[in-house]
Design goal:
Layout: H1 2-14, E1 18-23, E2 28-31, H2 33-39, H3 43-46, H4 51-54, H5 61-73, E3 80-87, E4 93-104, E5 110-119, H6 121-164, H7 169-175
Antiparallel strand pairs: 1-2, 1-5, 3-4, 4-5
Length: 176
């Protein structure tokens, strides 16, 4: 049991995903180093404090408290995931993807929430740049298509004009 506990602690601490454990009131019980670095805070900044007061922008606190209370009061049977903006210690806004499940006692009662999360800010910026690049290429392709169509129309018109200058039906049919 002691070895299993040490292995669990190592897995918890070395995981590249941010991991946090909350009690039923939304206070931090434990966080790993990835979670701390994601929010640019120390472990001591989290433990015993409310999630809603640390990471959530002021305009979203009420909504997030309601979501947390809803998760505790109406447990889901599967892992819950969502993405939302969070604040770092220097008030920088980051996008965070959360995966949430419950911790339970031996009787199956919910004792808290375990969350794994990942900063998706860079990914979102990359996706926006890719969409922008794709839109630019789409516009260029439409422009090239339009120009090719115009050029072909000009060529058809030139052939028609040229065909009018001939009287031999065989040559006219070739131009047509």
């Amino acid at each position: 049991a002691e070895k299993l506990k040490k292995d669990y602690q190592k897995l918890f601490e070395l995981n590249p995903l941010g991991i946090a454990l909350f009690d039923v009131s939304g206070k931090y019980v434990e966080v790993n180093s990835s979670y701390c670095s994601m929010f640019n805070r120390s472990r001591e900044d989290f433990i015993g404090k409310s999630y809603h007061d640390i990471n959530i922008p002021p305009e979203n606190k009420k909504k997030e408290r309601s979501r947390f209370n809803n998760l505790i009061k109406k447990p889901r049977k599967k892992v819950v995931s969502f993405e939302q903006p969070n604040l770092t210690s220097n008030k920088k806004m980051i996008a965070v993807k959360y995966f949430i499940d419950y911790t339970r006692d031996n009787e199956g009662n919910i004792t808290g929430i375990l969350t794994c999360c990942q900063n998706t800010t860079k990914l979102k910026k990359l996706i926006r740049r890719l969409h922008s690049s794709l839109n630019e290429k789409d516009i260029l392709l439409k422009e090239v298509h339009h120009r090719v169509k115009n050029n072909l129309q000009i060529m058809v018109s030139l052939f028609r004009i040229q065909a009018r200058s001939f009287t031999d039906p065989d040559i006219v049919s070739i131009f047509e």
